[in-house]
Amino acid sequence: MPLPTFPQIAILIVDDEADILKSFELTLKTGGINNVLKCQDARQVMAMLEDKNVCAVLLDLSMPHISGEKLLQQILGEYPDISVIVITGDNEVDTAVRCMKLGAVDYMVKPVEKSRLVSGVKKVVEIHELQNQNQLLKEKILEGKLARPEAFHEMVTNNKTMLSLFQYTESIAVSPQPVLITGETGVGKELMARAIHALSGRTGEFVCVNAAGIDDNVFADTLFGHVKGAYTGADQARKGLVEKASKGTLLLDEIGDLSLESQVKLLRLVQESEYFSIGSDLAKTSNVRIIVSTNLDLNDLQRSGKFRKDLYYRLRAHHIHLPPLRERLEDLSLLLDHFLGEAANRLEKSPPAYPVELITLLSNYAFPGNVRELRTMVYDALSTHKTKMLSTGRFQEHMKENQGSFIKQGRILDPFNASSSLQISGPLPTLKQAVRVLIAEAMKRTRQNQSMAAKLLGITRQTLARNLDIKGNEE
Q1: C-alpha span between 60 and 71 (Å, rounded)
Q2: Torsion sign (Cα): 310, 312, 313, 317
Q3: How does pLDDT run across 380-437, given as a tens digit for each residue?
């Protein structure tokens, strides 16, 4: 199966010896770098650069007709965005210093170790890709619009942070590098992964696997497959999900729960684009795009030794953090309308109207399950709905199960849990003063709706009205 072109913009090798050109080309292809151009005549280089799109040049210094140093100056003078790696048999420090001052990004002495050559070129390619992505992102931000908004049609939002993430996603979608998607449960991590796949232009499938709770053997078998006779019961060979997702995208969900043994195998796949089927000594080459997602903090996990540091930095070549619903409450009405339409279609009902108070009610809820929880609440409410106006009853029952949830420093806490406490600075208020503050805050949050404020405070409307009258008389 042919590998996808990598990098997208070609690498040009310039050397007057044909054997060295072939050797370097083979070494790079073995390392997964297959978009390679060759030039044996230094006089043809500038014409090739004008005709071809090149991101890096591997340049020999000792060549007839035009010296490598002179050619280095010409290349960087006319094409400053191209990275030049000097490769020569000259081991003189002065020569290396001159080349680096002229703008060469690296200097290698022949014979070059294969790993040194491949890693050096990959590093240059990664830098070039990041520069291109940054430029694309700047252009998108300046334009203030998306090139392909349809890729995000399942993610209903008008939130500025979310729209900025969409722009960033468009800029990194075609990159072959891994993507780390983080965020709380229910924020839409899989939807974002699917959007990346849709924008990537990759022709293969989108395949998703949950890594939570999978032991090392099951993980290897699931991802890499096995050959016939690999273990008892393996009566026939089986392809793994990596092969199923060939030329496509593989999403590894809950990556923070992956065992350290499995992390080693994943690192090889990400770093070398290679893997071994169980029972086989023959390495297979992968051409799959890796996306991982988690609701855990991988940075904390790698500091505590539960997640490999090298894998962590490999996986977060691109990082997308999706905000919780409580940080994008302006999307509540959009999401509510969307889910009501979706649920009505599924349940074969007409989308009902809902009271204005419902949005106010929902805006005071912390949504520990985020957008997914809101969707569940809508489906539950509509399944029992029989009148013209949607009742808030089912929503209130759901919220009552998590009564008292509020937001503090980005975490959802229960104030009735002994481990949490209210932070009060300054002198302790009297009970009477505290009641006034709570009532004022409840009225503010419910936009002066007494019925909802009373429910939020856990008192009757009559009790709230009496307290408001007392407050009014005192003023």
Answers
A1: 10
A2: positive
A3: 999 988 878 898 889 988 888 775 454 433 344 443 343 444 556 667 778 887 888 8
CATH topology of domain 144-323: Rossmann fold (3.40.50)
The β-bridge relationship of strands 10-14 and 54-60 is: parallel
pLDDT for res 411: 41
Contacts of 128 (CB under 8 A, 6+ apart): 7, 9, 55, 56, 81, 83
The matching CATH number, chosen from 1.20.140.10, 3.30.70.270, 3.10.20.90, 3.40.50.2300, for 10-129 is 3.40.50.2300
φ, ψ at 112 (rounded to 5°)? -90, 130
Which residues touch 18 (CB under 8 Å, ≥6 apart)?
40
**8 A C-beta contact, residue 329 and residue 366:** no
For residue range 265-301, list pLDDT tens digits in order. 999 999 888 899 999 988 888 889 999 999 999 989 9
Q: Which pTM does this prediction carry? A: 0.69
Domain 425-475 coded CATH 1.10.10.60: yes
Q: Facing residues of 407 across strands?
A: 412
C-alpha span between 147 and 171 (Å, rounded): 10
pLDDT of residue 138: 64
Report DSSP state, residue 66: S
